[in-house]
Amino acid sequence: MLNIVLKGGDVLCADGQVRQTDLAISGSIIAQVGNINETADRIIDCRDKLLIPGFVNTHTHAAMTLFRSYADDMMLMDWLQTKIWPAEENLTGEDVYWGTQLAIAEMLKSGTTCFADMYFFMPEVAKAVAESGIRAVLARGMAGVAPTANQALAESESFYKEWNNGADGRITIMLGPHAPYTCPPDYLKKVTALAEKLKAQIHIHLSETAGEVAECQKQYGKSPIALMNELGVLDHGVLAAHCVHVSSEDIAIMKEKKVRVAHNPGSNMKLASGVAPVPDMLAAGICVGLGTDGAASNNNLDMLEELRLTAMLHKVHRLDPLAIPANKAVDMATCKGAAALGLDHVGKLEPSYKADITILDMKEPHWHPRHDRLSLLTYAANASDVHTVIVNGKVLLDNHQLTTIDQERLLAEVDRRGLRLVKN
Amino acid sequence: MLNIVLKGGDVLCADGQVRQTDLAISGSIIAQVGNINETADRIIDCRDKLLIPGFVNTHTHAAMTLFRSYADDMMLMDWLQTKIWPAEENLTGEDVYWGTQLAIAEMLKSGTTCFADMYFFMPEVAKAVAESGIRAVLARGMAGVAPTANQALAESESFYKEWNNGADGRITIMLGPHAPYTCPPDYLKKVTALAEKLKAQIHIHLSETAGEVAECQKQYGKSPIALMNELGVLDHGVLAAHCVHVSSEDIAIMKEKKVRVAHNPGSNMKLASGVAPVPDMLAAGICVGLGTDGAASNNNLDMLEELRLTAMLHKVHRLDPLAIPANKAVDMATCKGAAALGLDHVGKLEPSYKADITILDMKEPHWHPRHDRLSLLTYAANASDVHTVIVNGKVLLDNHQLTTIDQERLLAEVDRRGLRLVKN
């Protein structure tokens, strides 16, 4: 017997077309898309609703929700040195657990079913992921210049061994060297050796700011992408966050090495980092997913906003209204994002794919009239339209209510902890 | 006795600070901000809610909601000539009435209490405004090159006489010459003569695209702003939509003539028009409000999105994270917008101001923790957080429910009409 049948919704099918049909879930898997007459444990009426693959947030620092709205409209280094780093000094493992739960609550309520995280106290993050039911790709952030450099390598290895493929296969572990400017070549060699040993992939920040690229050129005579290539970092399956300041030579390297990109338009706009050459990357055939970055630099984890910004920012930046059309942006927010995280059979509403599904209510005025549903999703929808969310076959958001997280307790915890962390 | 007391909310006061306090409404006016012990007809519990002046949408074409999602990701002229203009040919007065009601429903539900509109069948628009209870500044769009050129002038005059200061003073009428490229100098002289006669102000599109400015330079040897100045258009109180491609000389003229600007970042991004030099206009002391433009080129009427885009787009465009901070963007979306429309005592939560108030619920995860409420409003909130909306002292949205519009009937009407309009 089927576990769940989603009945009569408008389904974004794997061919990119939206059709009114049914969708059946068996265990953690999509069993069927089409007219379904079989019975099931649960039937959900999806008329007037849009079913899409769950959003994949390819780059965030989940627990930084605790610093949401703490410091904005500042120069990057001032922001880091006077605000974020001192506050992060106060973080405990418990804070990270609750901050991550806050992020997961917000992500589920806005339709995200999978996220890639880089932070610290990562076993606490994995615990939050395991308990909540969401899917995640986790990396212990490592800075070679920090006193914790060697400890971070050891923690990454034990974290990988304990949690990779954990929580019913919902958790994948990557290695997380923070960035070339915090990880010198010798340290990156240790990271690649560990990647080789564990067969783990790598999540890293690359070429986020012009200053960082100029500094790399000055110090090593090459771009961060070229330096990573020389050090062998790109040989292990790399998820590269940002890639704002990349040249056509960089893009050629990225293409050759199958580097996958996490594009974070909201963070890049708010921090004034610049506009990544995403149309060029797409033209080169590079896999580009979307991410929110941390809530301290965004300040939410709303993938619908990133989807919309992706479709709009590149149009105005290139002065080309055809730069990234709605359907391409939706792909980047869903199946391309899953591919960017190296996940198999995630990101499409198709039989044999993981049942990671976001169901949006189309009843509000901004969904009318409905000439084109993907256009409405991209340019008109908002996060609160997300009605029900299914991950790995389990309903985690049911008619706007979280099923695995006690929201009231969560908000009380994070309010208390958030205020404590920023006290001098 | 007071009519309404809003009790214990976090109030964005006229000095820009947020304080937990009470707010009293008497008739259409804010009577008091501070601790209130008097009784009232209605007391609304505003704990855990943020009270801000209602958003002012300084530029839209409300009835174009009917074309929402009909045609996107196209070149501007292709979009207009093959899609929008043929569909507009099919519009009836009744369509415009229902399309405007749809826009008003969406605007109220997302916290907008006043909008500036330019379209046709304007008495139908005024009727929708009068019935719904929202505040509006309306202009009959006029194109001097169209066969309806003289009729539009006559309609503008009768519309002004019938509706200016109508609906309990909620409606103001402006004259709406569409743009310099559709209104030749001789026609604009007739418009300014009518403005002079009626003492009416002017709402016009200026310098939206680079192509339009280049064409104006070629034809008249000057920029659209300079041409308007020469023709006397700027002497009558002008609300200028877009102003994307303006030079420093243009900005000097705008400053001298007290031109007020409707900045539409969402539309400018989606149509790839360019980025308006808003930081320069603000530095020159020009009054800049925010607008959504029509829903065919946005595709929603969500002022929170325009507020966020304003705070984010100019940062990345100038590579300056301090370009437009949250509090300045909030001003542009509220009190500066009211000033841009020439409205008196609208746009602040202060005694003697009109009771146009938007109340946002801060209960969702993306509002936690709360280090800074204006930052949360600007960078994290979404339209569905709008809980209750008051215009001119009347509750028009009550706990997410429209009080003056039958939403179910409305959506059935616009769905039917929207599909009819685009049939070939």
Q: Which terms summarize this structure?
A:
nine-stranded mixed β-sheet, 2 domains, 424 residues, globular, alpha/beta, four-stranded parallel β-sheet, homodimer, TIM Barrel
Q: What does this protein look like?
A:
The structure is a homodimer of 424-residue chains. Chain A has two domains: 2-53 and 353-402, Urease, subunit C, domain 1, CATH 2.30.40; 55-340, TIM Barrel, CATH 3.20.20. Chain A is an alpha/beta fold. In chain A, strands 1, 2, 3, 4, 5, 14, 15, 16 and 17 form a nine-stranded mixed β-sheet that branches. Chain A has a four-stranded parallel β-sheet with strand order 6-7-8-9. The first copy, chain A, is globular, with a radius of gyration of 21 Å. The first copy, chain A, is built from 16 helices and 17 strands. The mean pLDDT of chain A is 97. The interface between A and B is large, with 76 and 77 residues.
Quick summary of this structure?
The structure is a homodimer of 424-residue chains. With 424 residues, chain A is of the alpha/beta class.
**Amino- and carboxy-terminal Cα gap of chain A:** 58 Å
Look at the structure and give the mean pLDDT of chain A: 97
Task: Name the beta content range of chain A.
Answer: 15-25%
The low-pLDDT segments of chain A are none
Chain oligomer state: homodimer
What CATH architecture label of the largest domain in chain A applies?
Answer: Alpha-Beta Barrel
Number of helices of chain A: 16
